[in-house]
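Hello forum,

I keep getting stuck at the same step: I have a sequence, I want structure tokens, and every attempt I make locally crashes halfway through. Rather than fight my setup again tonight, could one of you with a working pipeline run this one for me? It's a single chain of 676 residues.
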Amino acid sequence: MAAVDANARPAPPVEAGLDRRRINLVFVTVLLGMLLAALDQTIVSTALPTIVGDLGGAGHLTWVVTSYLLADTIATVLAGKAGDLFGRKVVFQVSAGTFVLASAACGFATGMTWLVAWRAVQGVGAGGLAVTATALIADVIPLRERGKYQGALGAVFGVTTVLGPLLGGFFTDHLSWRWAFYVNLPIGIAVIALAAVTIPAVQAVARPVLDYLGIVFISLGSAGLTLALSWGGTQYAWTSATIIGLFAGSVVSLALFVVAERRAADPVLPLRLFKQSVFSVCVSLAFIVGFALLGAMTFLPTYLQYVKGVSATGSGLQTLPLVVGLLVTSVAAGTIVGRTGRYKVFPVVGSLLMALGLFLLSRMDAATAYWSMALNMLVLGAGIGLSMQVLTIVVQSTVTYQDLGVATSGVTFFRTLGSSFGAAVFGTVYANILGSTLPAAVVRSGVNPATIATPAELHRHPSAQIAPIVDAYAHAIHVVFLAAVPVAGAAFVLSLFLKEVPLRRTARASASDVGEGFAMPTGPDSLLQLQNAIARVVRSDPKAAAAAVRESSGTALDVSDGWCVGQVHVRERIGADTSIRAIAHRVRVPAQVLKPAFDTARGDGYLDGEDDRLTVTEEGREEIRKIVTAAQAWLADELADWGARDNELLRQAMRNMARQYVDQDVDLLAVRAAPP
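Reply #2:
Ran it on my machine without issues. Output:
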């Protein structure tokens, strides 16, 4: 794998003057961008029944979700490489602009085909926002604080799982379903404007290798299979030339993908990963978890609105037990795994609970009490939560450093692909059953079909009159969930083959990260993944980490000299103003207060020059080198279970990270001391 250039590149410099206020502004910008990307995965779920009623084309219902997910998945690979090539800031702004444009186009949709097409474009923008946001955090946040910020980004995905359905329902009931897309416009425009002002322009230092053929073939294969599963038995017969052609074309595309990956210098998904049984089992389980999650999130609101007569907002509220079960068990499982290092029991029990939850949901009808529904959803959510959190952690403990990025993104890819397939298969089953029962039910009810297009219109009629129609919808939902039970059963069988391996410390440190559990998109950059893992380790005790590095370095710098030399050193490296006035402005301390400390550092021989242009002497540089070497040794200890002392590529990455550790956090030199 030709990953040396891309994965072990030198850390890009951070813009001068990036003080706490500026860092927080960058983070707010990135957080808003991540919010946009995460929210639209779930915001349409409660609006879908009304969207289908307004636009028609029930056969395209799941493609509103699927097209977004597929495009989002592919965009994560492209965005990571584009950020290396053109700079993160440009890619972040272009992604936000693409997302805003597509959101406006979705809001103006007059037909399902238009909506599905622009949802795909929206997914491209969302994938770019999510991956670039993660990379921007690595560019501007000091290593010892990065875990905290990464955790906040990950939490966005957990929060939007709750917030999305509620917002989608609220807009549908009180404004229009179109506002589920229009709401993105002011936020997206604000993100673009804030990015222009707050985000530093960090230019790429290496030209990435892009696996064009791999991306094209996996995209065609995935899209073709999803289309075939969506259209089969609904718009086209399973034996039609269209469906057979889609299946055949997908098989050919996937075969060509395998060929392309064998020859690619930097493959999207290295085939050698599948030689490890742990990776193969984990991605298979991730696929099934995605299948169950998105299928349930898509069709539970349909059941609640069409069968129970609940409003769109009410359906969002009533699905909260599913999300609560998922959140609680996901965080709990991650915490327990992080402390004990034992994980196999969670996917085993989780898959059983998934199967039970899906079976219980399949038994619901128009007479089912809400407490019973809530319990069923809680069981399913708990099963999904127990299964989804540990998969990435396990993979990160079994692959080599070179494959860390592609393996981590591979789990996310298969989970998203499972979501797409789940939505497609559930949608096909739903459309087939409903198509065979609904027309007769409408005739028996004597209702004008034009007056029951949306759930709200249907339930304006007397309950007794629409009972046959409601029963038809209930039966379709029953078959959908019942058909999913064997899939969860397959997950249980697979989980029995999952090996229990010792977890690396860096993987255990990320176990309770909500972002890991909710499939926060990640790019295939191994260095970035490793830095994030180390950041979580540092976050557990930042003072101890800084003190350990300084003590082991044997530096002659005292607290005052160390802080002063560190400030000048960082500014010299990035070509910034090294005057006392500029440093004082950054730390918001009067220059006359700092001047005695800098005079002392000059007197001790570590700094030279006048107050308006200070430089680090050779003695000062030697002390900096000691600290960088100590930081590298500390990283080597943290990464001992990666083979850090034996792998030249990893040692090169550690040198980059050690330099970044010092450059991004000059307070390390003073062990977090206040300015002198």
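The two ends are 48 Å apart (CA to CA). If your local run keeps crashing, start a new thread with the error log.
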